[in-house]
Amino acid sequence: MASYNLTIEDGSPLISYGPSGAWKDATAQDTAGLPYSGSSLHSTTAPGATATVNFNGTGIEFYGGYRPSYGTYTLTVDGNQVASGTSTSTGVQTRQLLASASGLTNGPHTAVLTSTGVGMDLDFVNLSTQVGVDGSTTTSTVFDDASSAITYAGTWDTSNTNAYLNNTLHYTQSQGSAASLSFTGNGVAVYGTVSPDHANVQISIDGKMTMVNTQSSSISELHPQTLLYYANDLDSSQHMLIITNPGQQDAGGPFIDLDSITVYSASITAATSAGEGLPAPTALSNQSNDSGSSSAQSRPHSGLSTGAMIGIVVAVVCAILVLLALVGFLVARRKKRWQRLEESPKTPVGAELPLQGPNMRFTPVSPQQPMPTFSRLVSRMSAHSIAPSYYGSNNVANSSFDSTTPVAPPVPTLAMPRVPSRAQQAVMTSEPMGNLVWHEYARLISITASAYAVWASFFALFYRKFFWDFVGGTLRDPGGLQPAPSAAVFISIIVKAPIIPIINAIVALFILSVENPLPLLKSLSIRRSMIFKVVLLVFQAFFSVLFYQGTNAALWSLIAILCYIRAMALGETIEEAKANRGQGGRA
User: Fold this and answer.
1) What was the pLDDT predicted at 352?
2) Where is region (Disordered) located (predicted)?
């Protein structure tokens, strides 16, 4: 016969704890930093406390922890003691084999683990079971709750977190809501969650009904991916599995849910699958695919459809193109403004002060004026004339003459510049000293935003949270906020694998190397391009706003973008300092 193993976590309803109140469901704080399976355990300090498992199979193993405060225990199978031991140790050890029984006949058995000392804990149980006939092999096919092979009736909602298989879960609180799967196989296992707010689950195979209690008194926390039910005594024909919410709460809540269904098939040859001819599931485990082969195949995440993801990408690309078009318009406007300024004269042009270049010879701009004509002077003797005898016997009379027509225009009187008075200096200093340099202001904000983005990305590696998970999410108690299905793709690249924080850190570090240029970048003119900086800040703002720690960096990046756009609108340019021009490198 074909053998396979099943793992039963400590929170599974397949384990019955007694007496009531003797066992404690550990919280996340109790297992913090310890490698317990499923991050959970059940512990007891009461002598005589028991953990009972009814199963069909050939063997069973109980795993737990060793601690200095723990004591002894025994294991009985079908009323016979088969093992005993102690879980006392000098330090804390987890996932230790406490007791086991093997070589049992394949059939129904009852195993009871009993604490006979001062305390112990139970982590999980492994079952060994068989299906099929001698010489056959087992293949398993996993149907995720989002698989099209599963049919839902009634009112069901979905939840998406990394605690669930493929980050998806279907749940309902409506009485009579059901999920069904038609399959061909020799065994089946149903997985879901266990929580105090859950109701009983009614599971039937080919009309044979079983009631599963998912909210026993020994449960105080949410346990995801927990085995709720399994059957291994089926023949190789087609079967119908139906999971129903009967509305029986038993002091619990109204919820039931479904995470996945695993079908086990026995076949004589490895190439034959008992599931052939059925609709292909949309999600498969890494154990087998629909054909029953042993090759691994990844399962797609349910959440945003392909069309929705394409729409988001197109929208982001269009937004970036619009932004670039706006920046290009502002740059073209700036160039035209500078052209007009260069074409306009720097000083007034007139006949008396023509416009000159540094290498121009003087050429009057105004037409040459004709020489003035002077009328004949009418001479008259002045009273201050010098007598002819003054120079001897010269007969020429030396006289001074008065003319009614000026010979040349008067020469203006020039004065030396004077130092302004104290009153004038006070008026001058009260005026504004200068204008704000917007691109330098934007640079300082950009450096602040990028430094914060690096810090936020680092912490996002350890405390992972999609910031917008509350949009369309469902608040459950306990269990917390369950994000909407549309958030699955972001949870995968932020929570499950911190891809977005890593990309954001790289972008932020590059912006810092541009704004406070490294020696290798000083010689590149692109580092003085405000358009290039705006594009980098757009990407930084987009990546930062997706995860919890980066929202402030996204806000500051947007402010820096607006300041750079203002600088370009005013025609500002980023020039190299005069002392550094032509030096490059470490200048």
Assistant:
1) 47
2) 279-301
Instruction: Quote the CA–CA distance of 503 and 494 in Å, as a whole number.
Output: 11
Nearest to 142 by CA among 297, 305, 3: 297
Q: What's domain 1-131's architecture?
A: Sandwich (2.60)
All residues at 6 or more sequence positions from 39 whose CB lies less than 8 Å from its CB, including other chains: 28, 31
Q: Is 212 helix (H, G, I), strand (E, B) or coil?
A: strand
pLDDT at 382: 47
CA distance 357 to 255: 88
Task: Tell me the backbone φ, ψ of residue 556, rounded to 5 degrees.
Answer: -70, -35
Structure tokens at 384: 């201050």
- Give the DSSP per-residue string, 4-66: EEEEEETT-TTEEEESTTSEEE--TTTTTTS--GGG--EEE-STT-EEEEEEEESEEEEEEEE
Specify the 3-state DSSP secondary structure of 145. coil
Q: How would you write 521-554 as a 3-class SS string?
A: CCCCHHHHCHHHHHHHHHHHHHHHCCEHHHHHHH
Mean pLDDT of the chain: 78
Contact assessment for residue 241 and residue 111, using Cβ atoms and an 8 Å cutoff: no
Mean pLDDT of 101-129: 94
- Cβ atoms of 190 and 8 closer than 8 Å: no
Q: Cα 207 vs. chain centroid, distance in angstroms?
A: 47
Helix (H, G, I), strand (E, B) or coil at 471: coil
Classify 328 as helix, strand or coil. Answer: helix
d(CA 524, CA 560): 22
Q: Is the pLDDT of residue 411 over 50?
A: yes
Question: What strand order describes the sheet that includes 72-77?
Answer: 15-18, 50-57, 107-115, 72-77, 80-86
Torsion of the alpha carbons at 521, 525, 531 and 537, rounded to the nearest 10? 10
Q: Given this model, what pLDDT does residue 292 score?
A: 36
Q: At what angle do helices 551-569 and 438-460 cross, to 10 degrees?
A: 160
Coil, helix or strand at residue 464: coil
* Chain centroid to CA 430: 51
Q: Which string of b and e fits 40-52 if b means at least 16 CB within 10 Å?
A: bbbbbbeeebbbe
- How far is it, in rounded angstroms, from Cα 15 to Cα 62? 11
Positive or negative CA dihedral for 151, 154, 160, 165? Answer: negative
Domain boundaries, the chain: 1-131, 133-302, 438-461+498-580
In one-letter notation, the amino acid at residue 315 is A
How many Cβ atoms are within 10 Å of 422's Cβ, its own excluded?
A: 8
Q: Can you spell out the DSSP letters for 75-111? A: EEETTEEEEEEE-B-SS-EEEEEEEEE-S--SEEEEE
| Burial class, 167, CB count within 10 angstroms (exposed 0-12 / middle 13-18 / buried 19+) | buried
Cβ(217)–Cβ(23) under 8 Å?
no
Band (55; pLDDT cuts 50, 70, 90): very high
Decide if 1-131 and 133-302 have a common fold. yes
Output the six-digit token pair for 160.
């998406």
User: What superfamily in CATH does domain 133-302 come from?
Assistant: Galactose-binding domain-like (2.60.120.260)
- Using one digit for the tens of pLDDT, what is the confidence trace for 274-291? 333 333 333 333 333 333
Single out the residue of 167, 166, 182, 165 nearest to residue 243, CA to CA. Answer: 182
